[in-house]
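Task: sequence design from structure.
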């Protein structure tokens, strides 16, 4: 069974940066994609960044494009989310997802794939 564990969240001031990590264990990640989602209080969970395992193509939600970068370290089975120029509206519970039959698609301003495994998440709070 695939397990995903996120870390790196915390409190940061507006304009600051954070890097989140997602470590995968239990099953090899050979197909599909890995993505970061976030869910703010009172809102639905939304896909914000995705990297396809095969061609390493990346996709971003409109709200984070140009500020966030997703990357993957195969040797460490880890996916990162580098977040720059953080804004109060970026405050949310961030979680990673993996084990999808296909790569991600861009849809209605967000990224999406049919992921079968998700982590518990790490909280990011942007506030002065």
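Answer:
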């Amino acid at each position: 069974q695939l397990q995903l564990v996120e870390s790196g969240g915390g409190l940061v001031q507006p304009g600051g940066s954070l890097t989140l990590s997602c470590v995968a264990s239990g099953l090899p990640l050979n197909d599909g994609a890995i993505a970061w989602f976030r869910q703010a209080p009172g809102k639905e969970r939304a896909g914000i960044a995705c990297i396809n395992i095969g061609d390493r193509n990346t996709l971003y939600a409109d709200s984070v494009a140009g500020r966030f970068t997703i990357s993957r370290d195969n040797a460490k089975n880890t996916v990162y989310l580098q977040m720059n120029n953080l804004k109060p509206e970026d405050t949310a519970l961030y979680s990673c997802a993996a084990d999808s039959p296909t790569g991600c698609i861009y849809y209605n301003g967000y990224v999406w794939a049919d992921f079968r495994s998700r982590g518990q998440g790490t909280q990011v709070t942007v506030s002065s």
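The chain has a mean pLDDT of 94.
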